[in-house]
Write a structure and sequence with these properties.
Keywords: ATP-binding, Membrane, Nucleotide-binding, Transmembrane, Transmembrane helix, Transport. The protein has about 325 residues and is α+β, with helices and mostly antiparallel strands. The chain folds into 2 domains: about 200 residues, ABC transporter type 1, transmembrane domain (ABC transporter transmembrane region fold); about 80 residues, Rossmann fold (3-Layer(aba) Sandwich), CATH 3.40.50.300. A 4-stranded antiparallel sheet has the order 2-1-3-4. Helix 2 runs antiparallel to helix 4. The chain is elongated. The two termini are about 40 Å apart.
């Protein structure tokens, strides 16, 4: 879900939405200009144009209410496809080792089928709306043509050619204008989905008034007292009533099956989610200092190594606080 919002939705906001919005405004003004010219030349055309406009607005409102929900459905069914594909690529060796290729392929097909159903439904209702637009435009063209025939004695050749050429030109512009308006409306769902992330509960402050000493932690003592930890406010406890002391210089190994809480212990130290209870590192309560002061003083080696773009020195010392000699000593050790 996060990958989908920060790839497809951000792409819509940055690339497609501004261009579509600008093109919609241009085509909309062009359509309004054509209607105004026709009404000025043949004033009584305004009488049938008004009910046609009302019918169009009703159809557009009905279509937008449906397409907006279908677009949300399409976005929500697209996320499992990306998630399953990413997890399958990451665990490809495990899948092959346990000969689970068929199971994962069937699961991917089921996610893809759900997304294809929503996508096909979106295309279908778009075609349904396009057909009704063509009918409305056909009625408008017929009114302009028959109005020109009825008033052929009062119109000169220039006026007749003007309204007919403009009316035929709007044949392409009007459907495109409506499709752009619907497209802009649907792409605003991407904006809505991204804005949801701006309203999430934020982490604790990065820095507080109390700052730990520059050489903290110089001993490495860790003490936990009645620590409860969960990843979300309404989620289950993954660490419950954890109390332990790790003395300076000790090397402690934590063993357990998958889901026992090994990684959650590290997450509690880094305050990836705020733990309940008290955690001390070198006699300083971790909740009394800012997240930057806490996290930049600790290091973790993950199971899957990650090398950032840049030099080896930048990976070893991203904050440029150590000399080359110190880094060489670390590499040799």
């Amino acid at each position: 879900r996060i990958l989908n919002r920060f790839s497809k939705d951000i792409g819509h906001m940055d690339d497609l939405l501004p261009a579509s919005c600008q093109e919609f405004i241009q085509t909309f003004l062009q359509v309004i200009g054509v209607v105004v010219v026709v009404v000025v030349v043949i004033p009584w055309i305004a009488i049938p144009v008004i009910p046609l406009g009302i019918i169009f607005l009703i159809l557009r409102r009905y279509f937008l209410e449906t397409s907006r929900d279908v677009k949300r459905l399409e976005c929500s069914t697209r996320s499992p496809v990306f998630s399953h594909l990413a997890s399958s690529l990451q665990g490809l060796w495990t899948i092959r080792a346990y000969k689970a290729e068929q199971k994962f392929q069937e699961l991917f097909d089921s996610h893809q089928d759900l997304h294809s159903e929503a996508w096909f439904l979106l295309l279908t209702i778009t075609r349904w709306f396009s057909l009704r637009l063509d009918i409305i435009y056909f009625i408008f063209i017929c009114l302009v043509d028959f109005g020109s025939l009825l008033l052929v004695q009062t119109l000169n050749v220039g006026q007749l050619g003007l309204i007919l050429s403009y009316a035929l030109n709007v044949m392409v512009v009007f459907p495109w204008c409506i499709r752009l308006s619907v497209e802009v409306e649907n792409m605003m769902i991407s904006v809505e989905r991204v804005i949801e992330y701006t309203e999430l509960e934020q982490e604790a402050p990065w820095e507080l008034e109390f700052r730990p000493p520059p050489d903290w932690p110089n001993n490495g003592m860790i003490a936990l007292s009645d620590v409860n930890f969960k990843y979300s406010s309404d989620g289950p406890l993954v660490l419950k009533d954890l109390t332990t002391d790790i003395k300076p210089g000790e090397k402690v190994g934590i063993m357990g099956r998958t889901g026992a809480g090994k990684s959650s212990f590290i997450a509690a130290l880094f305050r990836l989610s705020e733990p309940e209870g008290r955690v001390w590192i070198d006699k300083i309560l971790t909740t009394e200092i800012g997240l930057h002061d806490l996290r930049k003083k600790m290091s973790i080696i993950p199971q899957d190594p990650i090398v950032f773009t840049g030099t080896m020195r930048k990976n070893l010392d991203p904050f440029n606080k150590h000399t080359d000699e110190e880094l060489w000593n670390v590499l040799e050790e």
